[in-house]
Amino acid sequence: MDCVQPQHEEKNITIYDLMDEILVVCPRCQALAHITSACSESTSVLTYFQVRRLICRGCGLSKELAAQGFGYDWHADPMRDPFFRLPLWLQTKYRQYVLWAYNDRHLLLLEQYIASSLRGSKPVPKYGWHNQSLFSRLPKWMIVAKHRPSLLKAIAKLKQEKLGTN
């Protein structure tokens, strides 16, 4: 089975673009809970400055967190969400590291990038060349070719165990 995709063209997606929905462990029942924006309509305010809502369909827990800016350093503890500071639902050990994602879309983007053998990037029309994209910020252990097969297996296992998909 060949798990390598031929080419990945970089999309100019940042980690902040993936914060519209974050899957976390419910602090009450340990089931899957969702953190989303409490704003019902689209707004020009950046997602991480919006009021956040935590909802667990398992136990009915519902909390809101007032918009407070973004003073949280997600580099310091990436296995927790940057708003309620709850453990991320999508995380698994990979060797001495932790593979994590905010949501299924984030996990799919990581899977597509890791699976590709050629990884291209191009300048952003507004800014030119920059290193703010999700893919330019990945740690070395995620992008080296020798880890590709085992990382893809770890992602498949995570998807099956936590999302119920293949």
Topology (SSEs and partners):
Blueprint: E1 5-9, E2 21-25, E3 32-37, E4 52-56, E5 62-65, E6 90-94, E7 97-101, H1 104-115, E8 116-120, H2 140-143, H3 148-163
Helix pairs in contact: 1-3
Compact overview of the structure:
This protein is of the alpha+beta class and 166 residues long.
The radius of gyration computed from the alpha-carbon positions, rounded to a whole number of angstroms, is 17 Å
State the helical fraction. Answer: 10-25%
User: What is the β-strand count?
Assistant: 8
Report strand order across the widest sheet: 2-3-4-5
> Which class do the helix and strand fractions yield?
alpha+beta
Strand content: 15-25%
